């Protein structure tokens, strides 16, 4: 099962300098949940993915597959749609490696790191 993990304590670039109001990540989790209602993914929120400089951080993972950390999202519906579209392609690939030509435009430039699967 592919899991999208959304950092609930993240703030996007526009709100990062302020501690006023709720973190952008909380709202982004809800937006991703709405976008993923029919997708073959599971969602979870977690406090802090330690990518504060990137804001609205997420991770896409599954057992035996590469894990991808993405950030620099604003938390919009378009961001959520692109993330879910990429996660769906990831879920369909045996190793979780989606060819660049298939990446949704909205995830290009958002990758922070990738982590090899645990043996």
Account of the protein in words:
- The relative contact order is 0.23.
- The protein has helices at 24-35, 77-92, and strands spanning 2-7, 41-46, 58-61, 67-70, 111-115.
- It is built from two helices and five strands, in the order βαβββαβ.
- A five-stranded mixed beta sheet has the order 2-1-3-4-5, covered by helices on one side.
- The chain has a single domain (2-115), classed as Glutaredoxin, CATH 3.40.30.
- With 119 residues, the chain is an alpha+beta fold.
- It holds the Pfam family DUF1636.
Q: Can you tell me the number of structural domains?
A: 1
Question: What is the CATH class name?
Answer: Alpha Beta
Give the averaged pLDDT, no decimals. 94
Order of helices and strands: EHEEEHE
Structural key phrases:
alpha+beta; 2 helices; globular; Glutaredoxin; five-stranded mixed beta sheet; 119 residues
